[in-house]
Write a structure and sequence with these properties.
The complex is a heterodimer of chains A (about 160) and B (about 180).
Chain A (H helix, E strand, L loop, with lengths): L1 H8 L10 H18 L6 E2 L4 E2 L3 E2 L6 E9 L1 H7 L4 E4 L2 E3 L4 H9 L11 E6 L5 H13 L4 E5 L1 E2 L5
Parallel strand pairs in A: 2-9, 4-7, 7-8
Antiparallel strand pairs in A: 1-4, 4-5, 5-6
Chain B lengths: L1 H8 L9 H15 L6 E6 L18 E6 L5 E3 L2 E3 L1 H13 L15 E6 L5 H27 L9 H10 L4 E3 L10
Parallel strand pairs in B: 2-5, 5-6
Antiparallel strand pairs in B: 2-3, 3-4
Helix pairs in contact in B: 3-4, 4-5
The chains are: A alpha/beta (about 160), B alpha/beta (about 180).
């Protein structure tokens, strides 16, 4: 009996904080990675249309993205409201696509290059003219695997 | 005596050496599982670039399923106005031709879909039309796959199965150079 009393008398040891740095670092790494993975700042407004026959894009490292849409409000003073294309993090013209693709291609091991997919994230309200120009450039640059980015339609047509 | 020794050890702190391991485990778990915006869409294989005009004179008219989309987002399918909602069913009927109509495709193998739009066509409309045409083929592949192999069609099927299905019903979708009548925005 006396033994038990003795144990309680010592009081509880303080909470061990040795693992706190680990947890903090974990959170830090997590947020670092999450923010880094996010796409470049979108300078155009893109609301992709709906579809039902979707395929998922595997292997994000083999995907490059072209954005098309109207410039967001803060860029409208400079770039107007006509639909524009965004490559990487800046506005570009369709003629710049081959260079953009080549820059992406050299970073990929040669064996995987045929698997490179170009994802076209195009706003639904854009007309086909600019999309057609982009497609022509892609064909000229021999980048034939493309993916029209679409959202899953909540209900079937 | 030996018992009291054990109790003395209980005063020590809990060993936190493995905490870092657990933390890293969690970190790696989140790293692997976090997918931000799930990227999905309609995958298309573009034809290689060539300046030559394709020769369409060899094709029989009955095998060509022409879909025109104008700048007002209206559909003209084989010379007839059609709503997008009807397109999938109509395309399927055209490809399979179950009633052996003389103006529909001879065989699914011979069917060719020709899609032509205007530079002023809405992108959303174009995607909807493309989606419906792809959906028609997907449904046909599904039917055939369940008939032959008893499973629905998916990309995970054995390569030989997929090949035999696609040999029977190949998806031939040709996109013509768009017209430029409509206003672009």
């Amino acid at each position: 009996m006396a033994k038990f009393i003795k144990k309680r008398g010592k009081g509880s040891p303080g909470i061990n904080t040795a693992s706190l740095p680990d947890i903090v670092f974990m959170l830090l790494f997590f947020f670092m990675v999450v923010t880094k993975l996010r796409d470049a700042e979108l300078k155009v407004r893109v609301v992709t249309p709906f579809g039902t026959e979707l395929t998922k894009l595997e292997e994000k490292s083999l995907v490059n993205t072209i954005f098309v849409g109207r410039p967001v409000e803060k860029f409208q003073a400079i770039y107007g409201t006509k639909p524009r294309m965004q490559l990487g993090d800046k506005f570009a013209e369709p003629v710049e696509i081959p260079l953009f693709l080549e820059r992406f291609r050299v970073k990929i091991p040669e064996a995987q290059r045929p698997k490179i997919t170009t994802s076209l994230r195009v706003d639904g309200k854009v007309t086909m003219g600019i999309v057609q120009d982009i497609k022509t450039e892609l064909r000229k640059a021999n980048q034939l695997k493309i993916n029209y980015s679409t959202k899953k339609r909540p209900d079937a047509l | 005596m030996s018992k009291s020794k054990v109790r003395d050890m209980m005063k020590n702190e809990i060993n936190a050496g493995s905490m870092a391991d657990i933390a890293f485990l969690l970190l790696i778990f989140f790293l692997v599982t976090t997918t931000l915006v799930e990227d999905s869409g309609i995958t298309v294989k573009l034809p290689p670039w060539s300046t030559e005009e394709p020769d369409i004179t060899k094709l029989k008219t009955r095998n060509v399923y022409s879909v025109l989309v104008n700048a007002q987002n209206q559909l003209l399918v084989r010379g007839q106005v059609m709503r997008v909602e009807e397109l999938r069913k109509n395309a399927k009927e055209f490809i399979v031709n179950p009633t052996a109509r003389p103006d529909y495709a001879e065989k699914p193998k011979n069917a060719l879909i020709m899609l032509k739009n205007d530079r002023g066509t809405n992108y959303a409309t174009y995607i909807t039309v493309y989606n419906e045409l792809k959906g028609a083929y997907n449904e046909l592949w599904d039917d055939m796959s369940s008939r032959k192999y008893g499973v629905a069609y998916s990309e995970d099927l054995p390569v030989a199965w997929k090949k035999s299905i696609k040999e029977e019903i190949p998806m031939v979708l040709s996109e013509a150079e768009p017209t430029a009548f409509g206003k672009e925005n």
